[in-house]
Design goal:
The chain is elongated, with a radius of gyration of 22 Å. The chain is α/β, with parallel strands linked by helices. The model has no long low-confidence stretch (mean pLDDT about 90).
Amino acid sequence: MTLTQLHYLITIAETKSLNKAAELLYVSQPSLTSAVKELEKELGITLFYRSGRGVTLTNDGMEFLLYAKQIYGQYEIVLEKYGKGGAYKKKFGVSTQHYSFAVKAFVELAKQFDMSRYEFAIRETKTAEVVSDVSTMRSEIGVLYLCDFNRKSMGKILRSAGLEFYHLIDCQAYVYIWKGHPLAGESAISFGQLKSYPCLAFEQGDNSSFYLAEEILSTNEYPQIIRANDRATMLNLMVGLNGYTLCSGIICEELNGSDYLAVPFADDEKNRNTIMEIGYVTRKNSILSRIGGMYVEELKHCLNK
């Protein structure tokens, strides 16, 4: 087994085509096919199903791909640190729950690089997809939160996915509204005061669980609730419908604008506030790339502000 074979495997899996992979790798298709067959023979498994529409990974192939990405990813980290570099574009990806500070940190990171030489990606997405993206190494880092309510279940999910959680900051929940909201002048807002307004929550998919929610009090029964998929829509609903959401209260005005407020959430016996522990996840026992380490530092810088 060689690093070249692993590189070939990863590229074929990403493109789902031997022709496209051969073009990207600057090798002939017969050479590429031969390398894959040699690898399959050495491993004693079939990596791909081949058809007229392209190639797809077998179950064995999907499992082996995870190990291949880990090995080749660590090789790239070593090469980046000690090698003379090359013509290939270095990749870096982040998957995150809907946090403007995570995007701000990504922006500050990207400013430090020549984007013609790098391929960066940031994915604001569902909690389960943050876990999946990092587990499958689609993204190097994931950003999400834990609290007393979800900690046990999320811990089990992270362990099953082979991920490790690292603490960044603790904060209590706030009511996030626009500055023209009827409750905008309050020093604190209780759950009872919010009954007349729609609660806004991020959609978590068909198989969603209360433990995957990005907001606290996800098990409460709300008189009005609207689910959205992205942060921009959420902000529009705040203005158009006087909606609100219960969040960390960490606002990046540079990206979200100055038309929104985070007001402390006044809890009661039935609706308790909670400490939200925001952090990042990586694959267990993996070494952060130089870019990954820089992104974590940008996260800390944004949060410390």
